[in-house]
Design brief:
Keywords: Acyltransferase, Antibiotic biosynthesis, Phosphopantetheine, Phosphoprotein, Transferase. The protein contains 38 helices and 30 strands. With 1006 residues, the chain is an alpha/beta fold. It folds into four domains: 338 residues, 3-Layer(aba) Sandwich (Peroxisomal Thiolase, Chain A, domain 1); 207 residues, Malonyl-Coenzyme A Acyl Carrier Protein, domain 2 (3-Layer(aba) Sandwich), CATH 3.40.366; 63 residues, Malonyl-CoA ACP transacylase, ACP-binding (Alpha-Beta Plaits, 2-Layer Sandwich), CATH 3.30.70.250; 113 residues, ACP-like (Non-ribosomal Peptide Synthetase Peptidyl Carrier Protein, Chain A). It is elongated, with a radius of gyration of 36 Å.
Amino acid sequence: MEPIAIVGIDCRFPGAPDTRAYWDLLMRSGDGVGEVPRLRWNAEEFHSASGAPGRTNTTKGGFISDPDAFDNEFFTVSPREAQAMDPQQRLLLQSSWRAVEDAGLAPQSLAGTSTGVFVGIMGNEWAQLHLTDYDHVTAQIGSGNGYCMTANRISYHLDLKGPSLAVDTACSSSLVAVHLAANALLSEECDIALAGGVNVAMTPALSIFYTQAGLSSPDGRCKPFSSQADGIGRGEGVGVVVLRRLKDALADGQRVYAVLRGTAVNQDGRSNGITAPNRWAQQEVLAAAYRRAGVEPSDVTFVEGHGTGTALGDMMEVKALGHHHGSRTGKPLALGSVKGNLGHTEGAAGIAGLIKVALSLHHRVVPASRFSAKENPSLKLREHGIRLLKAPLKLPAQDVVAGLSSFGMGGTNAHAVLASAPPAAQRPADDTGGLGTAVFTLTAPGADALRRNLIAQADSVERGRLPVGALAWTSNRVKSGHRYRFAVGASDTAQLAERLREAAADDAVLTRLAGQPAARPETAFLYTGQGSQYPRMTAGLYRESALYRGFLDEADAALAPHTGRSVRDLVLAGDEAVHRTQWTQPALFAVEFALGRTLEALGVRPSALLGHSVGEYAAAVLAGALPLDGAARLIAARGALMQELPDGGGMLAVRAPHAEVAARVADEPLVGVAAVNGPQATVLSGDLAALARIEEELTGEGVRTRRLQVSHAFHSPLMEPMLERFAAVADEVGGDVPRIPVYSTVHGRLLEDEPMDATYWVAHISAPVLFADAARTLLDEGVTHAVEIGPRPVLLGMLRTLGAGPAQVVPVPDEDAGSDRLADAVAELYRGGVDPDWDAVYAPRDRVGQPLAPYAFSDRHRYWAAHTPSRTPSAGPVAVAAQSAADTRVADAPAPAAEPVHPAVAVLDVSRGRADGPVARAAVEAVGLVGGYGPDELSPELRLYEDLGFDSVMVMELKSRLEERLTGLGELTVQDLLPRLSTIGDLVSFLHELDAVAPGSEERTA
């Protein structure tokens, strides 16, 4: 068959809360078995050392910790629904999310795709306990139980549209699920498949069955193929793998743990008992798997056996393996079983074994099999060409083939043949391009979740010692999609870990480095004018960022034919000639062109542009109004022609309004208003003697003034002698209508289908720079972020004088700024809602996926059923939630009655003059009852669907509860109610509207 890649793994087994811990448990031959937790049942009550009927012969088993913990808020599941859900559904939801992340995919990115879900499950004890308690059956209990829902719940919450089904073939369920998932990929029913298994023991029922059938181990441990073997010990766990066709995984550069080469499933048929293993069927399923994989038995290095530790089961399995491998005298088949570490995880047994084999192939070592030191002599392993793994088996570097068996108690057998992954593509050596500094990102539904995951990532970063660029690139792709956005630049992993921990520990830092964008951002680029230049401007960025370096080189090449020397070299060398107008203007143009193009290449695409004086030239290129070579020719001519003008001109900044200053120079033919930068910021330009007279008058009147250090009187009548020669060049260059909106500082407004042509650029020289007018118009359009494009920030300060404005971003604050400051700007924009082109941030060698810590779910909320199975009929189960210091819920019982003035009611009704209105109180109480929310958990802005997890069933119940409480309103119709369920506040407003026209409203509101 076509090979299938395992690209993502997550699991949770006894003594191993995650995949990393699972591998550690296996490598140290750890024991996950312990006493039955009191949360499940009172094991002592059912224990009988003699194995009397109706009792168990053990008080031990392999149990996972905290199966009652569930981060319902993450999945927008109401507390009432979470309480009703089978814990197996909850575990699978969280494990599936983490497995998809481990595959290098953002789980939200799968929404709407044909991704399939295949779940193996054998027990449904939660349903047995709840669906037989008829007095407490609710709609949530119905949807919270049932085998199908274990798979369907995953598809629903991740919005997956591919096949979604649960499989029960007893102990082989999850390996059969993998078999079905692989076939669905091969038939192209889906392109990605999640396959897994789960088992949670809620009652002692199976323990009693195993004891009565003579299959239960007294110490609760499986001892596969060992002389100590004395039966089955029960185990729990959950595991999920992400599968893709190998060719697709390799094409997308995904990490591949191992490859499924062939799978097969068959049945015992009518054999020596429905629960008894059948050697011949097992032999045939092995042969079928080998045929599909295209391998010979001699190719198989090791097999993860079913290995339950029962006399008959182990014997049949060894004989079936020996049929195929008995001739291997020189190189016996290595055999082990993870059940020795965990117990028999029943519906999750196949996935537990699959993950063990995949990790063994990935790490190139097979862990020793627990209890293998004393093999069962009656099995005659050596005669069957088999040996138990008494020590870890180091695997060779070349391709290795392994097998995995999982046999169902009812006779459905499965076998899989796996192989080591093909050699990973060599990491590209190409370090061209890229920003130069990594930007690590993380998202979460809330601030607490963000803190929790920052710590988890910091721990992982410190432990892994992987390249910071590759880690950050992976975070950009995988850790996305939630409301809270965190981003920080880092040059190495030590700095990254430090910044992650700092943000988690300090609320002020977290507030600064995280954002909650409410809408799509509108970003404006503001291009700085003359006066912001300095020697070696952006030299640090040029040195560190290949991306910026390429664009500055491009601008320099365009300018060189018109300047006669390299503007780039002049700037980087620290030449003071950069202050001469002839070089200032081309140098600023080159730097600003390169900065704007760099940000654009990084995915920061402006919705508006504004340039101050010569800043408009780089803006015009980005807007598509001028080609690069045309703009380079114009700016070079402009600077050279101005440099040729005679000395004798100057500029004066005046702290006064434009109108007042303009009146002052009305009778001065050699002086004009050069710029209007703010309400109290006007610049005059012209003849030095005239400026001196005006300065003296203004100073005498108490008006503050400041001489500007310039070579010429820009934007003044003194520019007249150069206009004709410049116009000739401008006519040849031409100009088009901007494709990106440009707020012109020539006109002080938005250009509307007006070309930035020769006429525009000639007027641009003498006309005043109407920055304040243009910027005010820009702000009125709702810009959310202003990014200053220039060697140092100048315009953002002017922007603040115009009143409350957008968030301000500074990519280059000074001459020492390197790529870290530009990375900080990208991070700030991301926090504000911009979605950068992350590939452009990194050189090709860093665009390689790396393992990140999986999402750290909250364990604050606990949901469990306090059923105490007994030999005598009980008065009926009472569902309660486990309590923690942070959260106490009673989820199946009615929600607590509202306080006299419910917090949400007080906020909702105060504007109507009714601080404790009956309508609002009834609405909030009804929402709380339906969802299982306490009084302090509801507020007006909460959305019923997105925040509180309401669905159509809950809406119908809400309707009924509202009608019960608000009898005077008459019957509510669903058609009227649905459009008004966006938020609790909207619901209350709607009910007030109905109440205002209903009979008797005066009495209710008096």
